[in-house]
Amino acid sequence: MDVHSHVLVVDDDEDTRGLLREILAKEGYDVETASDGKTALERITDRPPDLVMSDIHMPSLDGMSLLDELRNRHQDVPVILMTAYGSLKTAVDGLRSGAFDYLSKPFIVDDIRLVVRRALEHKHLSRQNQALKEQLRDRYRFDNLVGSSAGIVSVYKSIARVAHTDSTVLLQGESGTGKELIARAVHANSARSAGPFVAVDGGSLAESLLESELFGHERGSFTGAVASKKGLLEKAHLGTCFLDEVADLSPVLQGKLLRVIQEREIRRVGSNSPMNIDVRIIAASKKDLDQLVKAGTFREDLYYRLNVVTIQIPPLRERAEDIPLLTQYFVQMYGQKKSPPVTGIAPEAMSLLTRYWWPGNIRELEHAIERAIALTPQSVIFPEDLPQSIQTATVQAAAQEIGRAHV
Q1: Nearest-angstrom CA–CA distance, 407 and 405
Q2: Which of 93, 169, 190, 297 gets the highest tally of CB atoms within 10 A of its CB?
Q3: Dmax (CA) of the chain
Q4: Strands, E, within 290-403: which ranges?
Q5: 255 by DSSP, 3-state: which?
Q6: Would you say residue 139 has pLDDT above 60?
Q7: How far is CA 89 from each of CA 65, 72, 80, 126, 266, rounded to the nearest angstrom?
Q8: Bridge partners of 102?
Q9: Nearest alpha-carbon partner for 360 in 391, 405, 407
Q10: Which tens digit of pLDDT belongs to each residue from 281-330?
Q11: Helices 150-163 and 179-188 sit at what angle, rounded to 10 degrees?
Q12: Taking CA 340 as the corner, what is the angle to CA 131 and CA 146, rounded to the nearest 5 degrees?
């Protein structure tokens, strides 16, 4: 917030105007006054203020009418209403009509300072959030991928280059970096976009179940197989199959996957008849497959088949400049679902987010924002709404955690 913000005080009482001018000028604000609503509208036309403080009961054009005019002409200018005739009904009417807040006379000086500061911060946040929304629509975006840092722009370029080919793609990156979103972006920008996109988590199922899920099975092939079933690879015919955590596949399944890529055919569990399929494979792993090959736990021939084009996805701590964009994206996603909606985040809260090292990457950021929106009683997220781990994080602690993660 700029201490030189322009504040317009509107009141038919000269002493009140003088008092407010003195209090606000001492805080560093540029203060202008008007004795009635009509004069205020003329001043606003010539020079729109950052904040209006208006008495409710004035002759000619009262404060409520001035508020209505401002909502029509300058929706982004916050209005604080003032009155010596304080009542709950007056306050509720003013707030329902769009006033930022309400002050009763006689004033408490600290209340004036606090409300004015919050109103100006709210305006600053509105401008900041609008700028972030515009950045979200820039050319460096694929569907739900957000960011403009050098690292993520490199990923966008790789997507654009590989999408129109039919090459197998390997995505490498830590958990929570958005590997499935990137796989979907490759699919959506490919000639296969009209076909299915099927996601498989290689680490979520036991080997026996995963084989049936991937390749399908024939009736009676094992206990409980009461009917034939298509596998996920078969369902992905003419589309894309995303194999997440491919490093967790057993040696047997690694061999069968290699056959799929080489021969473009599958065999259902319990069948001896091969079935031709046309599927693009996008594989992903948080583990370094090259190191697993050297350790003898991942097939070298499969690795070379998967590693036609590799896209390395940077962790969030290496693209901290994208955190404000991602935060605004999640605020838009979850904030509009709440009543009243949550529309922004305070600068001090954003500072905590950009300082935190995000071991869980984008997924952790999304959950933190979703939680904050669920808990905050305000229209803006403040530091106290964030998880305690983020509030208390220090640079030193982050460095220690990063060191442990790479041991």
Answers
A1: 6
A2: 169
A3: 96
A4: 309-312, 344-345, 380-381
A5: helix
A6: no
A7: 16, 23, 16, 28, 72
A8: 81
A9: 405
A10: 999 999 999 999 999 999 999 999 999 999 999 999 999 999 999 999 99
A11: 40
A12: 35
pLDDT digits (tens, 9 = 90+) for 24-61: 999 899 999 999 889 999 888 888 899 999 988 888 78
Please say whether the beta carbons of 176 and 360 come within 8 A: yes
- Number of Cα atoms under 13 Å in the Cβ half of residue 393: 23
CA atoms of 140 and 20, how far apart (whole Å): 47
- Which residue type does 321 have? E
Pairing, β 51-55 against β 79-83? parallel
CA 84, 88, 93, 97 torsion: positive or negative? Answer: positive
Burial class (CB in 10 A: 0-12, 13-18, 19+), 69: middle
Q: How far are the Cα atoms of 183, 206, 255, 266, 299 from residue 258, in angstroms, in the given order?
A: 20, 19, 5, 10, 9
The amino acid at residue 210 is L
Q: Which two tokens stand for residue 260?
A: 């799929």
Give me Rg for the CA atoms of the chain. 30
- Element (H or E) spanning 172, and its range? strand 169-172
- In the structure, what pLDDT confidence band is assigned to residue 346 with cuts at 50, 70 and 90? very high
Angle at 200 between CA 196 and CA 206, to 5 degrees: 150
Length of the chain: 407
Q: Which amino acid is at 174?
A: E
Q: State how beta strands 265-266 and 275-276 pair.
A: antiparallel
For 306, other C-beta atoms within 10 Å of its C-beta total 26
Can you give the pLDDT at residue 138?
Answer: 45
